[in-house]
Design goal:
Layout: E1 13-14, E2 30-31, H1 36-47, E3 65-67, H2 71-74, H3 82-85, E4 89-94, E5 98-106, E6 116-124, E7 132-137, H4 145-156, H5 159-164, E8 165-170, H6 186-193, H7 202-223, H8 232-245, E9 251-256, H9 258-269, E10 274-280, H10 289-312, H11 323-339, E11 342-343, E12 349-350, H12 352-360, H13 369-380, H14 385-394, H15 407-418, H16 425-438, H17 443-446, E13 475-482, H18 488-498, E14 501-509, H19 519-531, E15 539-540
Parallel strand pairs: 1-2, 7-8, 7-9, 9-10, 10-13, 13-14, 14-15
Antiparallel strand pairs: 3-4, 4-5, 5-6, 6-8, 11-12
Helix pairs in contact: 1-14, 8-9, 10-11, 10-16, 11-12, 12-14, 13-14
C-alpha cells in the first residue's frame, strides 16, 4: 500500500519508509503510504519481483469542468471563511483521463484574511451513477494524495467504489504541490544521507544538533511563513473546504496511517459534517511521540521475525538456523555496515542508517519480502547496492539522482508542529536504552528523535489527546495484526476513543489493509461507502 507512516520525528515514519530530516538516523514511519503500488512496481522492476506487479488500466477521457458549490453546502462555512467554501473551482484534464485543480485556503486560520495558499487536487471521476466523492489521504505526514490517485487509482480502489464515487486525492498543505516545505538541494540531500553522527557520544550528539539546526534554518528561509501553519489541525480545516468544493454535504473519506490522524482530527473538529469515514492503519492520537516511537520499534521487530521465519521456509534464504539465529545474522550485518560504511556500485556511501532504511521498506508488505531477501543476499556477499536502491525508493530518489518529493521535510515539519518532543540529553539517552531493549535490531535507529525539533523555528501547536467525536455517523477503523508502522493496538485504541465506530481486523502482514488484503476487507469497506452498511464491530478478516 502506501507509505512510510506518520513517523515519529527521529524514527521511522508513520507510513512508509521515507528519509526524514537529513542527518537523522531512522526513516520509516508511523505509516506514510506514499503509494505502495508505485513503490511496489519500482521494487519489482529493480529486483524482478513479479508478485508485486500491478496492472494499470485505461481511464475514460475526463473533460474540463467548472465546479460551483451548492448554496446549501456553502452555508456550512464557519464565520469568516465564506469565500473559501463558495469558491468556483476549474477542473482541467490531466494525467490521462483524470481532472486536476487548485483550491484556495487561508494560510492561517486564526487570521484568514492575511494570505492564501493553494492546495493541489486530482479527481478520478466515477464510472457509473455518482453518489458523491471519497477524499483520500495516503499517509505520511508528507505523502502526496495527488500521486496516490494518479499512480494507483485504477488498481488500488475497487471497481465498486470507483463506479459509485469520484475518488479525490490532494496534497495537504506543505506537501509537494501545495505550498511545499523546501529545505535542501538534491545534492545536499545525498550528502546528508551519507553523514554519520555518533549520538551516543556528547560530541556526536552536538554535531547532530548543529547540523539539524542548519537544516531547520534553511527550511525556514526557503519555505517562508507557511512553515508554521502546516499542522494537522489546519490540514483538517482544509479538508472541510475540500468537502464543500466537491459539493458534498458530508465528508466521505479514506485515510491511511497518518491519514487516520488527519481523519480523526476532522471528526473532532467537524462532527456534524462526518459522512462515511474509513481510517485504515490507525495512529493513536492520545499517546506521545515517544510512545509512538516505542510502539513502532516493537512492531518492526515483530515484522522482522515474521519475515525471517518466512524466508527460512523458502528454498533460497541467506539466513541459517533458527529464527533467532537468522535475526542475529542480520544484526551482525547491520553492525558491520554501521562500523564500516560500505560503498555502493554508484560510488555513494551506505551508512548503517541507510542500510536499515532499505530494510524497512519491504517490511511494509509481505509481497515485497523477496526483494529484501535478494538485497540481504547481496549484502552478505559484500554488495550493498540493492539495499541502497530500496532506501532510495523510500526517500523518493530516482536513479538519475533527482528527489521527486519533499516528503522527508514535510514529515519533519508537520511532526514538529503536532508533537512536543523530548530533547534533553539525559532523557534521550534513557529512551535509547529502552528502545534497544524492546527492539534489539532497530531500537537504536528510532532513538534521538527529539533532535529534529529542538531548534525548529516554530513551537508545537497541540498536545496528544484522545479523540472527542460527538457525531451521529459511525466510523470504520481498520487494523492489521502484523502492521509494522501502525501496530494493531493503535487501531483498537482509536476505535474505543471514537465510541461510535466499528473495528475491522485483518489477520495479515504489512502496513494497512484496504487495497492489499482480501475480499473480506474490501467488501466491508465498499458496502459501507456505497450502501451505508456498517461492518460488524470486531469483524476478523
Amino acid at each position: 500500500m502506501m507509505s512510510a507512516p506518520r513517523r515519529p520525528a527521529g524514527a521511522p515514519s508513520r507510513d512508509r519508509s521515507d528519509q526524514q530530516l537529513a542527518g537523522s538516523d531512522a526513516a520509516v514511519g508511523r505509516g506514510t503510504r506514499r503509494g505502495f503500488a508505485a513503490l511496489c512496481l519500482a521494487i519489482a522492476s529493480m529486483l524482478v519481483l513479479s508478485a508485486c506487479s500491478l496492472p494499470f488500466l485505461p481511464q475514460p477521457t475526463a473533460k474540463p469542468t467548472t465546479s460551483t458549490v451548492d448554496p446549501s453546502i456553502a452555508a456550512s462555512a464557519p464565520e469568516g471563511l465564506e469565500k473559501y467554501y463558495s469558491q468556483t473551482v476549474e477542473w482541467s484534464s490531466c494525467e490521462g483521463g483524470m481532472q486536476c485543480a487548485t483550491i484556495q485556503v487561508p494560510m492561517d486560520y486564526d487570521d484568514p484574511d492575511s494570505a492564501d495558499i493553494e492546495l493541489a487536487a486530482i479527481k478520478m471521476t466515477s464510472t457509473g451513477t455518482k453518489k458523491g466523492s471519497v477524499l483520500v489521504n495516503p499517509g505520511g505526514p508528507g505523502g502526496s494524495g495527488v500521486d496516490f490517485v494518479k499512480d494507483a487509482g485504477n488498481t488500488h480502489f475497487t471497481q465498486k467504489l470507483r463506479t459509485n464515487f469520484d475518488v479525490v486525492g490532494f496534497d495537504p498543505r506543505g506537501v509537494k504541490r501545495s505550498s511545499p516545505v523546501t529545505c535542501l538541494t538534491d545534492s545536499e540531500r545525498d550528502a546528508a544521507r551519507e553523514m554519520v553522527f555518533r549520538k551516543e557520544t556528547d560530541a556526536g550528539l552536538a554535531d547532530a544538533l548543529a547540523f539539524n539546526k542548519s537544516v531547520a534554518d534553511k527550511c525556514a528561509e526557503k519555505t517562508g511563513p507557511v512553515l508554521g501553519e502546516i499542522d494537522t489541525v489546519s490540514a483538517a480545516k482544509d479538508l472541510d473546504i475540500l468537502r464543500a468544493v466537491v459539493n458534498d454535504a458530508k465528508l466521505n473519506y479514506l485515510g491511511y496511517s497518518y491519514g487516520t490522524f488527519l481523519g480523526s482530527t476532522y471528526a473532532t473538529l467537524f462532527p456534524d459534517n462526518v459522512g462515511r469515514l474509513v481510517l485504515d492503519g490507525a495512529v493513536d492520537p492520545s499517546i506521545s511521540n515517544e510512545e509512538l516511537t516505542a510502539g513502532q520499534a516493537r512492531a518492526f521487530e515483530k515484522a522482522l521475525r515474521a519475515y525471517v521465519a518466512s524466508c527460512q521456509s523458502q528454498n533460497q534464504c541467506p539466513l541459517s538456523g533458527s529464527v533467532d539465529n537468522g535475526i542475529q545474522e542480520i544484526r551482525e550485518l547491520i553492525n558491520a555496515v554501521e562500523q564500516n560504511p560500505q560503498t555502493a556500485k554508484d560510488g555513494r556511501l551506505v551508512t548503517g542508517s541507510e542500510f536499515v532504511n532499505g530494510m524497512y521498506l519491504p517490511l511494509y508488505d509481505d509481497q515485497s519480502w523477496p526483494a529484501l531477501t535478494q538485497a540481504l543476499e547481496s549484502a552478505f556477499s559484500g554488495d550493498v547496492s540493492q539495499m541502497l536502491r530500496i532506501a532510495d525508493l523510500g526517500a523518493d530518489r530516482d536513479q538519475s539522482g533527482k528527489y521527486t518529493s519533499n516528503s522527508a521535510f514535510a514529515f519533519n515539519a508537520i511532526n514538529c508542529l503536532d508533537y512536543p518532543m523530548v530533547s534533553d540529553t539525559s532523557a534521550m539517552r534513557a529512551e535509547e536504552a529502552r528502545l534497544k531493549q524492546e527492539s534489539p535490531t532497530f531500537g537504536s535507529y528510532f532513538a534521538y528523535g527529539g533532535i529534529n525539533c529542538q531548534d525548529w523555528p516554530y513551537q508545537p501547536k497541540r498536545t496528544p489527546a484522545p479523540v472527542e467525536y460527538t457525531g451521529s455517523e459511525p466510523i470504520v477503523v481498520i487494523g492489521t495484526t502484523g502492521d509494522p508502522a501502525t501496530p494493531l493496538e493503535w487501531s483498537q485504541s482509536l476505535r474505543k476513543q471514537l465510541d461510535n465506530a466499528a473495528l475491522v481486523t485483518w489477520e495479515g502482514e504489512g502496513h494497512t489493509a484496504y487495497g492489499r488484503s482480501n475480499t473480506c476487507v474490501s467488501t466491508a469497506v465498499d458496502d459501507y461507502f456505497v450502501d451505508g452498511k456498517l461492518p460488524q464491530d470486531g469483524l476478523q478478516c
